[in-house]
Amino acid sequence: MSAFFAMGGYGAYVWPSYAISVAVLAAIVAVSVRQHARATALVRRLEREEPGDAS
Known about the structure:
Blueprint: H1 2-6, H2 11-48
C-alpha cells in the first residue's frame, strides 16, 4: 500500500497536486453557492417592490 502512495517516487508531487485541486474545486463550489443565494435574494427583493418603484 505504501508503494501506491509513493507513486514511484512522485507521490510528494502528486498528492499535494490532488489536494490543491480539490481545495480549488471546493472554493469554486462555495463561491458559486454564495453568489446564487445572493442573486436569489436580490430577485425576491426586486419582485416584492411595487411596479411603479422601478424607473
